[in-house]
Write a structure and sequence with these properties.
There is one protein chain. Helix 10 runs parallel beside helix 15 and helix 11 packs parallel to helix 13. The strands form three sheets. Strands 2-3-1-4-5-6 form a six-stranded mixed beta sheet, with helices on both faces. The protein has a four-stranded parallel beta sheet with strand order 8-7-9-10, sandwiched between helices. It is α/β, with parallel strands linked by helices. The protein contains 15 helices and 14 strands.
Length: 406
């Protein structure tokens, strides 16, 4: 059995000054030596991630970070990486030494609230400081639950877990479906999954696995084929499928084979709805028709695979967008968690489905683009637009179709 992907876990970040015991607290919560612990301030440099099951909450991902009071040029880089974590956490632990909560923590708590990140205050090293009443009251007066703990002795850890359960977003994944809500129980969805040279033998990519599991949970039937087997699959069904989902690269060929009355979309477009804001990215797609030669286009890919000769983001998509624009464009590519601070010079941002990131991170990137006045779309939407089948690809999503024409 495969573990829950990191992208579907509740992300919990640990923030605070240097040497307040964030790494020790993470080790105590996970009951493992996840993070390196030292008396020297600034031991944690890059964010450290640890997936685990936090019952009864379920699968979570703890993220330990460097202190936000770091110093010097290298310290500035460490703090920048910590601030990048703020873009993707669903819940925060704001850690301070017991008896030492002050204006710095107040300011950080205000930023977490401004970002709408549920937060629990943690007064660590409670076994070394007394009394704790005034510090705890100060935090709780700000409307934030606060728990004194000792990462060394384990004091307060059960209460901290209870506080996490109380502030965690309700129904984190329960109400979200990738595609099962588009397929009535007992009906068939055909999943067209081309196997290209970059696909490791014996494995499927994450969006394909997510789709199959979602259909199983919805008590629907999943028929998995490659593009060449699609005609036989359609012919063998007694009634038309409720939905056909294809890899975006095969959009045009699949659309030519699927009857016009059968709903059709792509895995990437489904991920835009699941992990991001489909309406916002549909509105951004309209900018493709306005692209002019020489304009800058940012292509953002959440994973860090080694690109091949026919890589979708670096080769095929630029080729199709330039054909649509009728002139050369200036493409820039980023991977992983990199995302530019200054977006104003781009005419368009094209993002992957972000199957390796989480929903909050994707929503944050969409918001940053909107704040900068830069349209953002995703691979599937951009390909459908470039191939002239965007309306059809959005037919299963009436609100998105309305956003396109509105």
């Amino acid at each position: 059995m495969q573990p829950t992907p990191r992208t579907l876990r509740l992300h919990i970040g640990l923030f605070g000054r240097r040497n307040v015991g964030k790494s020790s607290l993470l080790n105590a919560l996970t009951r493992q030596q996840v993070s390196l612990v030292s008396e020297q301030a600034g031991t944690t440099t890059d964010p450290v991630e640890k997936p685990m099951e936090l019952l009864p909450l379920g699968p979570v991902l703890f993220v330990d970070t460097a202190g936000l009071d770091d110093e010097g040029a290298l310290g500035g880089q460490r703090m920048a990486r910590t601030r990048a974590v703020l873009e993707r956490v669903d819940l925060a632990l704001l850690v301070a030494e017991a008896g030492a909560w002050g204006p710095f923590e107040d300011a950080l708590l205000a930023e977490l609230k401004q970002r709408d990140i549920p937060t629990v205050g943690v007064l660590n090293k409670a076994d070394l400081a007394a009394p704790l009443g005034s510090g705890r009251a100060r935090v709780e007066a700000l409307g934030t639950p606060c728990v004194p703990v000792s990462a060394q002795s384990g004091e307060g850890l059960p209460e901290l877990k209870e506080a996490l359960l109380r502030v965690a977003p309700g129904g984190f994944l329960d109400s979200r479906q990738l595609l099962a809500d588009l397929v009535p129980p007992g009906q068939v969805a055909i999943l067209v999954m081309p196997i290209d040279s970059e696909a490791p033998k014996g494995r499927l990519i994450l969006p394909q696995v997510m789709a199959i599991r979602d259909l199983l949970d919805g008590h629907t039937l999943a028929l998995v084929v490659q593009e060449g087997e699609l005609p036989a699959a359609l012919e063998g069904l007694k009634r038309p499928p409720a939905l056909v989902v294809t890899d975006s690269q095969a959009f045009q060929g699949v659309a030519a084979q699927v009857p016009a009355e059968v709903p059709l979309t792509s895995f990437s477009i489904l991920l835009s709805r699941f992990h991001g804001d489909l309406r916002a990215q549909v509105r951004g797609t309209a900018a493709i028709d306005r692209l002019r030669g020489g304009e800058r286009v940012l292509v953002a890919e959440g994973c860090t695979h080694h690109p091949g000769d026919e890589d979708i983001g670096r080769v095929k998509l630029p080729r199709w967008l330039e054909a649509k624009a009728g002139a050369p464009l200036r493409f820039e590519h980023i991977q992983g968690r990199d995302f530019p601070a200054d977006l104003a010079s781009y005419a368009l941002v094209v993002h992957c489905g972000n199957c390796m990131g989480n929903r909050r991170e994707m929503l944050s990137r969409i918001q940053r683009c909107e704040d900068a006045g830069v349209p953002i779309t995703n691979y599937g939407l951009a390909i459908a637009c470039a191939k002239g089948i965007l309306d059809r690809a959005l037919r299963p999503f009436p609100e998105a179709l309305e956003a396109l024409h509105g």
